[in-house]
Here is the input.
Amino acid sequence: MYRVTKQIDFCYGHRLLAYEGKCRHLHGHNGRVEIELEGPALDERGMVTDFAEIKRVMKGWIDDQLDHRMVLHRRDPAVPALRELGEPLHLMEENPTAEALARLIFDETRRQGFPVVRVVFWETPDSFAAYAPGGD
Here is the structure.
C-alpha cells in the first residue's frame, strides 16, 4: 500500500460553546492540516495522487471555506452580530473542535474523490486531533 500526505496551513478563528477553558472566548489559530491518501498501486505517472492536484482542490476549498473565517457552532450567539458586521463565517453543526475540523476536512476530501484514509488537524504546534474511519 502506498501513502502520501499533503500539508496545508491556514488561519482561522473559533470558540467552543459549553466549555469552561480559555477556548470559550473568540480567538484565532494558525492551523495545519495533514491529508493522508492511500492507494494499492501507483498511476501511470508513478503516483498515488499528484500533490499539485491535492493542493489545487483541497487548499482551494480550505481557502474558500475556512481560511480567515470564524468557524463557529451554528447556534453560537455571536453569529448574528458577526453576520451583521459582514464577517466571514463557517458554521458547523457541532463545536468547532480540532476533532470536528479533522472530520470536516476528511469528509470534504472524500467528497472530492480523493482516496483519503486520515486527516490530522494541528490546532497549535504541539496539539493535534486526527480522524480516520475505523480508528486508523
In short: The longest strand covers residues 2-14. The two ends are 14 Å apart (CA to CA). The chain has a mean pLDDT of 96.
